Amino acid sequence: MELELDRLTKQYEAKIAVDRVSARLRPGVYGLLGANGAGKTTIMRMICGILRPTSGEVRLDGRSIAELGEAYRARLGYLPQDFGYYPEFTALDFMEYMAALKGIDAREARGRSLELLDRVGLAGEERRRIRTFSGGMKQRLGIAQAVLNDPAVLVLDEPTAGLDPKERVRFRNLIASFATNKVVLLSTHIVSDVEYIADSILMMRAGSFIMQGSPAEVVRGIEGCVWQARVPVREADALAERLSVVNVHYADDGTALVRFLSDGAPAPELAATPVAPTLEDLYLRVFDETGNASAIDAPGVTGGSGATSDAGVSGTSSASAGRGGGSRANRVSGRRGSHFGGGRNA
Ligand SMILES: Nc1ncnc2c1ncn2[C@@H]1O[C@H](COP(=O)(O)OP(=O)(O)OP(=O)(O)O)[C@@H](O)[C@H]1O
């Protein structure tokens, strides 16, 4: 099974929201990672056949989804960003209603709904009204309805938005458990949502895929650019002014371990050591505050997007929080130079 995006483009008047995006997606989890406004929702809506591309097309196993019509929808599961949950419905009513919309036989629908509610941790809550559900419960119900028809293509648009860290982890595991033999496309601007479960990262910026590859492949492009140095705490903030600081771990002995990006070797007096890059380092580098992305030497890179900088930086700190062992973990978003094409070194 292969889902192909062939020069997929969407233009809204003067705004090109998605610009000739191409990719071949085989079963696996794809993390569509990009800042707000990068074009993630627009791509997903085109993949779901809800939005007609200005040009280009989506094909499933070589056939246009526009031609496939109902046959494609029967193989598609979708959890939109702003999913309407019918607050007065019970979870089971809702699942059965969605099953009916998907053309699933009523006798089969009950059993399948109960089985899925159980799988998403809502056993015992089937008869509760959705309005009494927490955000996490609603999203778990959302994924349950999306897989009612055992789809070959599962599209999840920012499914972890608004979830607390514990629910986010739970949701992540749930997605992984549903992913077998499916193309799962999951959009997010939170690196940790996809860092561990995605087989492939599709890094999106200003309407284009600027990188495609496994997490290990895409981070290879910034090997040698991530450093850490232990400095007195009072110097850590000053460093953030000079360097592209990813995070700072404060220790109890008055020092701080500063992780930062630098294209070349930092000043010797810092005694910095190079460290292995992570997806979050890469994300911060790509979505630098200036928006000055350009080509970066990584596999699958389709080149600089010629991007305008309307894709704002969303400074997530979720990934860094789980890393390192400092007594306090902070993201210091210091003034960042242009990291591409001649960024300043430390
Ligand atoms: N109906 C529309 N008319 C005009 N411009 C639009 C429309 N829908 C989206 N856009 C613009 O297209 C660009 C891509 O939007 P899109 O919603 O796909 O981004 P996104 O990456 O999903 O962002 P977010 O995470 O905020 O949802 C944005 O600049 C947005 O303002």
From TrEMBL:
It comes from the Bacteria. GO terms for molecular function: ATP binding; ATP hydrolysis activity. Keywords: ATP-binding, Nucleotide-binding, Transport. Residues 3-231 form the ABC transporter domain. This is ABC transporter, ATP-binding protein. Residues 295-346 are annotated as: Disordered. SUPFAM superfamilies: P-loop containing nucleoside triphosphate hydrolases. It comes from Collinsella stercoris DSM 13279. The keyword ATP-binding applies. Belongs to the ABC transporter superfamily. SMART domains: AAA (SM00382).
